[in-house]
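#dry-run=false #mode=assembly
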Amino acid sequence: MSVKKCPRCGSTSLARDYERGEVVCTECGYVVTENIEDLGPEWRAFDSDQMASRARGGAPTKYTRPNKGLVTEIDQYDRDIRGARISQKKIAQLSRMRKWHKRASIATSMERNLAIALTELDRISSYLGLSNETKEAAALLYRKCVQKELGRGRLIESLVAAVIYAVCRMQHIPRTLDEIARVAGIEKKEIGRAYRFVRRELKLKVPLTDPKSYVPKFCAALKLSGKVQEKAVQILKKAMKKGLVSGRGPTGVAAAAVYIAAALEGERKTQKEVADVANVTEVTIRNRYRELKKELKLKVEL
DNA sequence: AAGACGAAAGTGGTTGA
DNA sequence: TCAACAACTTTCGTCTT
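#status=ok
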């Protein structure tokens, strides 16, 4: 797939322009290949630890805003440069030109927007270890947003992040706003705002985050057995029936359940260990743990 | 010495007037 | 837009293993 020589002038000095996805001959300017394929990482990761240790790459490419705020427009005073009236024929022509000029600009700026957005989406998805399926769903949702002209006056990146967050929640993929904010390089607050906006405008029905979906993630991070995992889910099911889940942070509830389950199965972890992987404090775990213990009458021997 | 526990004060976000 | 509010965090002192 890689081209060594320029097919037009035969020169071997080819330069890659990653920002535009082109390989260009520096002698004659011939574009040798367009759309360099992103082959993805050349390594494979078999679990999230490896993912974390092998993933690399510099700072995200920051694209400037499309068209840098410069737009051309054909004014609507049907006069010539001296201010004299012009013929009906010319007026009609100008009107058509205006129309098409506008359409063409919109079309290309949308394309550019999408190109940037999809690149960003790709980057964030791979950092979050999302499946292709999830990524596709996010891309589709993003297109809908663009069609509805959401995201005006908003950073493309925030909209992308918001869309990813929404899709993760809809597919029960445990990713917190914090995680996404970190890899996207956007403030949590900003993403949250964009997310709520998108959800409202598109009337998305996003289920409440189920603490159960965090259990496998936490157990894996703590290297706990499947038994613990089952137990934790079991605890959470009971907890939900007792209404101990609503209003509380799902990660905190899940963390407490995992903590209890581990203790019950004799694979005890300290509160701190669990707290760290769940990104909550020990205090929160204790509070949830206390509630769970009381309401479910669990006896946890220490 | 380390972990567990809980009280009290502080913080950021949501909600309802 | 502002104030009340709940959840969560930080900090710190005490108890248990």
